Amino acid sequence: MKKNQLSKKALEYNRLVQAQVPKPPVFLNCCKAFLVGGLICAFAQVVQFCFIYFFDFSKTNAANPTGAVMIILAIILTCMGVYDKISQWAGAGSAVPITGFANGMASAALEYRSEGFVLGVGGNMFKVAGPVIVFGVVAAFVVAIIRYIILAFIA
Amino acid sequence: MMLENVYQVLIAFVVGGLICVAGQILMDKAKLTPAHTMCLFVVIGTVLGGFGIYDKFVEFAGTGASIPIISFGNSLVKGAILEGDSVGLIGIITGIFEITSAGISAALIFSFLAALFCRPKG
């Protein structure tokens, strides 16, 4: 009984705390994410046009080098400390594009450098980007297997 | 021709921005961490890629669809399917990194070089 009352009090307290915690300014955050994410994608589109017009890539082949260029640029910006400032301001706007993936790897590599190259850089490089690769590969495997089985049944 | 390119850049801006807004809403409203959001996006990408929907979307939106992390999942599953169709079941394993290898290798190599030559800032 007493314990029950206590938990009621705790619940009440939790409710009070919840009311005091500042709500994230969702709309403002969304505007920032839209602006930065859109600008990154628009810039990548310009890079892709450069590959198509100056290096004679086809429209489909140009996507890969474009991604690589964006990754390299993101890593350079991470080295200069610029990307982390952008991502503090932009939230998902800088995290969702592939540049955020590169930023996660580069900043982990830089951060753990002091622990040595094998255990520090090598061991922690995929700390941020690892989950994305793991879930992506497992999901891709499952989807491809399901598709394979369905097609085998149809044929 | 020029006007068409400007139009394509605008589409990339709007579509890429909207995908980022979806991520921001997941983070703010659904209280997901950035890592959970990224994983969710990649899984969504593999499912859309499995149905062949995402490639049509990339055709429409250009880098607005191919730069967000969703397209990473799409590329993974596309590589697996292409290789699986030509080689058979084992191709699903060998083909997964077929398309994404450029991105992962570039990120890995240049991150290592960054750690060699740079000091962390901020």
Content-based structural category of chain B: mainly alpha
Radius of gyration of chain B: 17 Å
Mean pLDDT of chain B: 89
Q: State the shape of chain B.
A: globular
- How many H/I helices of chain B? 7
Q: What is the helix fraction of residues of chain B, given as a range? A: over 70%
Assess the beta-strand content of chain A as a share of residues: under 5%
Order of helices and strands of chain A: HHHHHHHH
Indicate the overall shape of chain A.
extended
How many beta strands in the DSSP annotation of chain B? 0
Instruction: Write down the domain tally of chain B.
Output: 1
Major sheet of chain B: none
> Which percent band covers the strand fraction of chain B?
under 5%
What structural class results from the helix and strand content of chain A?
mainly alpha
What pattern of helices and strands is seen along the backbone of chain B?
A: HHHHHHH
Biggest interface in this structure? Answer: A-B, 77 and 73 residues
Helicity range of chain A: over 70%
Q: What's the number of extended β-strand segments of chain A?
A: 0
User: Helix segment count of chain A?
Assistant: 8
Measured between the Cα atoms of the first and last residue of chain B, the distance is 44 Å
Distance between the termini of chain A: 66 Å
